[in-house]
Amino acid sequence: MAANTAITALDKIMQAHGGLVTDMDGEKVMMSIANGKYYSLGEVGSRIWELAATPVSMEDIISTLLEEYEVDPAACRTEVAAFLEQLRREGLIQITPADSL
């Protein structure tokens, strides 16, 4: 999937290989071996990261978060899409387009 193509609701998202991840007080702290950067994901970001341990759609991530947190559905969609896009730009997730499944 091209980096300039938006992630769709049904694309499959999965953690990319090559990072070191640890849990610190319920939040994930990561280091990318590829780019040498550190990341702190926060509570919700950590939950998204956990969900991406196996291929999962953005739609399924949003559904899970709506069940687990009190959040406006539209805000959840916007924030999840932006977060996943950031992870993609940093090379932390892999995207498999829904139309190639």
Q: Can you give a write-up of this model?
A:
- A three-stranded antiparallel beta sheet has the order 5-1-6. Strands 2-3-4 form a three-stranded antiparallel beta sheet, covered by helices on one side.
- It has a domain at 12-17 and 43-100.
- It contains three helices and six strands, in the order ββββαβααβ.
- A hairpin with a 2-residue loop joins strand 2 (19-24) and strand 3.
- With 101 residues, it is of the alpha+beta class.
- Helix 2 (58-68) packs across helix 3 (73-89).
- The chain is globular, with a radius of gyration of 13 Å.
- Helix content is 38%, strand content 25%.
Helix content: 25-40%
Biggest sheet architecture = 3 strands, antiparallel
* Alpha-carbon Rg, integer: 13 Å
The first-to-last residue Cα distance is 12 Å
Strand order of the biggest β-sheet: 5-1-6
Mean pLDDT reading: 91
Broad structural category: alpha+beta
Number of extended strands: 6
| Low-pLDDT segments, ≥5 res | none
